[in-house]
Every structure is written in structure tokens, then in C-alpha cells.
Specification:
heterodimer, A: about 260 residues, alpha/beta, six-stranded mixed β-sheet, four-stranded antiparallel β-sheet, 10 strands, about 35% helix, globular, B: about 260 residues, mainly alpha, about 0% strand
Chain lengths: ~260, ~260
């Protein structure tokens, strides 16, 4: 029996900005219906990796396959089709502050002309309830929401079109520990309910273990370790151990600019 | 600094200018191409028309009225030295329709709307909202830029029609109330000297200026980076660039329309 096709397969992914190499030959397989957590320090290339997979940044070398298709070789229409099955929760929510909450949530549905505005609002209210927000929140503006509520609305927008793949960029950054746990719980529930494949980038170890089935660590643009998320705290890898336990001493030295 | 360093700096500046101009031209072409290719975002276009046209009306109207008033007063005192007071009406109407209506409306809208566009799109850029649009199957150029370019192109001529009328009205009020002109003769002089070309050239200028204002607001906002400081810089650049371009294109268009 042949091996199952990874939902996302990266091979030799390299990205440079000027003379700085941010990603260097990344090889990574993410199997269907699994949650992969990518950890790493600030500036390790996590966000660039996510933006490359999303198609927001074009890598200099390497391939990105989604469901076996090399997305870098697809034309614009085909890429749009692939993107239509992807949901993304941005670090700061990235809600459209010129639109009320319900229009933010239903934006993808309205953009694809898939439903009328009335139907879109009803769907948005339903999705808001799935992330624990009352229907009345739909008529508020993003600026009227707390940080935790903005994350929930961002999550609702990401899952509204029932995507196959979900990306989470630092989902708990800026939240208190309880709200962080709530968001993580919602993420796990949504991923399970939709049967989606999830990729999260974070440097919150508690969040990484709550969300992830698998984990990988990125350091200076390279994957230095990957394994089960449950092994994060005792991986046997010096770099991962230093990072997950927050030790000052170890193979990772903070680079200070002089 | 050696001569070689100086030449290198001049060359780099020239190259940067060429690259910047090329980028701007490509941005404008792409933006315009989305104006004629579906899907169309009617709500965004309506919002932009409201912002550029309707909400700019008070400031443009006040500018036009006061400009017409000042023009009548100044031209009257100047022309009376040559016993040519009767030319006040024609001078006011030609100045307003050909030149001051579109240029002053353009400059006022550049300050009000160009800055707002750059700030809004710039903030969307630095808070990942532009990337969020892309992930939601929406082309940001089509959603954010094309409706604004079209609205700029259409709204400013409408504003200038109103500015022309109010500018002439301002001159009429000063001429008849303060300077003692006969209202019937003033109106007859105004209409006798006004030709269709004068109004049309002003409206064409307004359309070009409206497009330039929207283009500068969108371009600088879309390419802003670096947080609040970057958005502030984009806003300043949008207003300065639009104002300078309005004055430069005013000369070019005047040359095209009226140079013999």
C-alpha cells in the first residue's frame, strides 16, 4: 500500500531578503487531519514560512505542494481555488475595521458571491455562536471588542467557509493565560469538527502542546527538530530543550546587534 | 566627497526615480485594469464616491465661494486703473472655470481625501488586513484600489461643476452688492464670454486631478511599511505628491487645451 499524500509538502523551501536568508531548504510534511505546530524564536522565519505557504510571499527556491499540487506552478485562478479552502487566523486578528463584525466573519462567503447578504449574516451569526460569541456581537465594530473577542472573531472568519486547511499565527499572543486557554480550546474544537489540517506557529509552549499533534522547531531558517507535540518538553534535542524550558544557557545564543 | 562618489549618488537617485516611476505606472495600469474587469465592488465604489464627492462638498464649496469673491474684488480694483471694470465678470468666470475651480478643488480634496486614503490603506497594510483580504479570495487591488480610482475620476468633475457655479456666484455677490455692478449686465457679460471649451477643459482637468489624488493615496498607502511612522510618512507623501502633480498636470493640460 502506498503512503498517504501529505496535505502540505514542502521541499527545499528557501527565501532570502537581500543578503539575509530567512528560510533555508525547509523540508516538511503535514499529513491530513493533523495539527502541526511550528515553534521558534523571534526572527526564526516562522511567519515567512506561513506566508510562503499561503502564497503571500513567493519563495526563491523549493516547492510547496497542497494535496499533491505544486501551488507555485498554478495559474492565478487555480491558486485562488486552492486558497478558497484555506482559513487563516492572523496574530493581531487583522479584522477589517471598516466593516461590522458579522461582515468580517462572512467576508469570504460574500467575496465568492456564494450567498446573499441575508444568508451571509445568518451564517455569520451561527459561526459566531460556535466560537462562543452572542449574535448581538455581529452588529458591533471590531474597535468595540476586547483582544480576546477579536481573536474569536478572527477564528470565526477563518472557519466560516469550512476550510480544509487552517493556519494560526501566534494565536495566544497578547492574551491572558485563561483567554489563551479558551482560544486554544476553540481552535482544537474547530479543527476536529471541520476535520481540517492545521498549522500553527507559536512560541507559547503551553499553547503548542494544547493545539499540536506534531511539532517542528525552526532555528535560523532551518528545521532543527520535529516530532510529537507531547515530546516538546523532553525532546532530547538541546536546542528544543533550551527553547521550551526558556534557559539562557545552551546552543542558542541571542544575537545582539552592536 | 570625491567626484566619483558624487556621480554615484546622482546616478543612484536617478535610478531610484526611474524605478519609482515605473512602479507607480505599473500600479496605475493594474488598478485601472481592475476597473473594467469583474468582479466589481459596488459598495466600495459607493463609499468612495461618498467620501470623495459628497463629504468634500462643504470645503470645496467654501473655497469656491471665497475665491470668486476675492477674484471679483481684486480684479475690480486692478481693472479700474485701466477703466476696464466691465471685464470683471468675464475674468471671474474664465478664471474659475478654466483654472481656479479644478485646481483649488483638487488641492482641497488632495489634503482631505488623499491623506485619508493613504492612512486607511496604510493602516490596513501594516495590520495585515491587506494580507487578510488575499486569504479571503479577494484581490486587494480590485477591492481597495480600483473603486477609489474610478470614484476619483468621476467625483471631482462633479465637485468642480458645483465649485464653478459657486465661484461665479461669489463674484456676482461682491460685484453687485459691494462694487455696484448691475446684476443683469454682470450676468450677461458672464454668459457672453463663457464658452463650452472653458467648462469642458476645467472638467477634464478635474477628472485627471481626481485620478491623481486617488492614485497617490492608494499607492503610498498600499506600499507603506513600518507601523505608525510608516503610515504617517505614506500620508504625507500622498498629499505632497498629489499636490505637486496637480500643479504640474495643470500646466501640461493648459498647454494642451489653450496653447496656440
Amino acid at each position: 500500500m502506498s503512503d498517504p499524500v501529505p496535505k502540505i509538502r514542502l521541499r527545499g523551501l528557501t527565501k532570502r531578503f537581500g543578503d539575509k536568508t530567512v528560510l533555508e531548504g525547509i523540508d516538511l510534511d503535514i499529513m491530513p487531519n493533523t495539527s502541526m505546530v511550528v515553534i521558534g524564536g523571534s526572527g526564526s522565519g516562522k511567519s515567512v514560512l506561513l506566508k510562503c505557504i499561503l502564497g503571500l510571499i513567493t519563495p526563491d527556491e523549493g516547492t510547496i505542494e497542497i494535496d499533491g499540487k505544486d501551488v507555485l506552478r498554478l495559474d492565478r485562478a487555480e491558486r485562488e481555488e486552492v486558497r478558497a479552502h484555506i482559513g487563516m487566523l492572523f496574530q493581531n486578528g487583522a479584522l477589517f475595521d471598516s466593516l461590522p463584525v458579522w461582515e468580517n466573519v462572512a467576508f469570504g462567503l460574500l467575496a465568492r458571491r456564494a450567498v446573499t447578504r441575508g444568508e451571509a449574516k445568518a451564517r455569520a451569526v451561527g459561526v459566531l455562536e460556535q466560537v462562543g460569541l452572542a449574535a448581538s456581537v455581529g452588529d458591533l465594530w471590531p474597535a468595540e471588542l476586547s483582544g480576546g473577542m477579536q481573536k474569536r472573531v478572527g477564528l470565526a472568519r477563518a472557519i466560516a467557509a469550512q476550510p480544509d486547511i487552517l493556519f494560526f499565527d501566534e494565536p495566544t499572543t497578547g492574551l491572558d493565560p485563561i483567554m489563551g486557554a479558551v482560544i486554544d480550546g476553540l481552535i482544537v474544537d474547530c479543527v476536529k469538527r471541520l476535520g481540517s489540517t492545521a498549522v500553527a506557529i507559536t512560541h507559547d509552549m503551553l499553547s503548542a502542546r494544547r493545539i499540536g499533534d506534531r511539532a517542528a522547531m525552526l532555528f535560523k531558517g532551518r528545521i532543527v527538530w520535529q516530532g510529537q507535540a507531547t515530546d516538546l518538553m523532553n525532546s532530547g534535542n538541546d536546542m528544543v530543550d533550551q527553547f521550551t524550558h526558556g534557559r539562557r544557557e545552551g546552543p542558542i545564543q541571542m544575537e545582539l546587534r552592536r | 566627497m570625491s567626484i566619483l562618489d558624487f556621480v554615484q549618488k546622482v546616478g543612484r537617485a536617478a535610478l531610484d526615480t526611474c524605478v519609482g516611476t515605473g512602479r507607480l505606472a505599473l500600479f496605475a495600469v493594474e488598478g485601472l485594469s481592475h476597473v473594467v474587469r469583474p468582479p466589481f465592488y459596488g459598495r466600495m465604489f459607493g463609499r468612495a464616491m461618498l467620501e470623495i464627492g459628497y463629504l468634500s462638498l462643504p470645503v470645496v464649496a467654501l473655497t469656491a465661494v471665497f475665491t470668486g469673491m476675492v477674484l471679483a474684488l481684486q480684479s475690480s480694483t486692478g481693472l479700474s486703473r485701466f477703466a476696464a471694470d466691465s471685464a470683471v465678470a468675464s475674468l471671474v468666470v474664465l478664471s474659475v472655470t478654466r483654472e481656479l475651480g479644478p485646481v483649488l478643488a483638487g488641492l482641497m480634496v488632495a489634503g482631505r481625501v488623499g491623506a485619508a486614503m493613504a492612512a486607511e490603506i496604510g493602516t490596513m497594510r501594516v495590520t495585515d488586513q491587506v494580507d487578510a483580504l488575499t486569504t479571503l479570495s479577494t484581490n486587494p487591488m480590485k477591492y481597495l484600489v480600483a473603486p477609489r480610482l474610478l470614484a476619483g475620476l468621476l467625483a471631482l468633475p462633479l465637485l468642480v461643476v458645483i465649485a464653478d457655479i459657486l465661484g461665479v456666484l461669489g463674484g456676482f455677490i461682491i460685484a453687485t452688492v459691494k462694487l455696484g455692478f448691475n446684476s443683469g449686465i454682470y450676468l450677461t457679460n458672464t454668459l457672453d464670454f463663457l464658452r463650452t471649451d472653458d467648462v469642458v477643459s476645467g472638467l477634464v482637468k478635474a477628472a485627471v486631478f481626481g485620478f491623481l489624488i486617488a492614485l497617490m493615496g492608494c499607492y503610498h498607502g498600499y506600499n507603506s511599511k513600518g507601523g505608525a511612522q510608516g503610515v504617517g510618512a505614506a500620508t504625507t507623501s500622498a498629499v505632497v505628491a498629489a499636490s505637486v502633480l496637480i500643479l504640474a498636470f495643470d500646466y501640461v493640460l493648459t498647454e494642451l487645451f489653450f496653447a496656440r
